[in-house]
Model the fold of this input.
Amino acid sequence: MKGLFLFIGESFRYGSQKTKIRGTKESYDEQIKACKSHIKFIENMEQKYNLEKSDVIISSYTTKYDAELIAVYEKYLVNSTFQQILIGLTNTFHNILLNMKNINDYDFIFYIRIDLFLKDYLLKVIDITKNKILFPSICWGKKCIIKNYPRVNDMMMFIPKKYYIYINYINIFHNCWYKLINTSTIKNEDLDVILNTLHDSDSEKDNNPIYYIVNRPESKVWHSPNQIFDKEKFIQHIQNIQHI
Done:
């Protein structure tokens, strides 16, 4: 089994949501710490699933630390790009994958935002043998639904080979579940989550057991400890609503 890991988005970012400060010396240590956690995760995935090969592509935005970023991933790196202007995660994702001639060499693609520190619990709970598109979790509280579909955490996504034909339909946003169901032939049974507990995507707002966003405060509070995402019940509930 061969895997392609995509680390994309703004690196060496400093500050809370919507801030666009990048490349300051204050951002350096935490970003490098995040990148090293990515390498540790890949190495552990290789052991857990006996991966034959793991490749990495990084696509970020240029700072004075581009060379240092590349150096961390050197063992696995097959390509890297550094944009000058913001183009968004979905455009970055598509620019990489829709132009790849060897995409079918890989049994899965794992997109992860580059400014995440990956905790050890991610390896424990991820199950790629489900052979489904996996989102990290569903967002908590009143924010858990978009147009009657689960509002997904968009910080990472696991995509098995059989779903590569749908890459053009994937958008890196909270409405991805809804979009896939309503713009392609993907069904609810093709989609699932890594965590069945609910969490906000921003670890500054809500504690997350599988990652935190570096260079911003990490919340110690988990706001929905008694809420579980049961996909079958959720889908049945939505189907009942639609038939009322």
User: Anything to note?
Assistant: The two ends are 46 Å apart (CA to CA). Residues 2-242 form a domain with the Spore Coat Polysaccharide Biosynthesis Protein SpsA; Chain A fold (CATH 3.90.550). DSSP finds six helices and 13 strands in the chain. The first helix runs from residue 25 to 49.
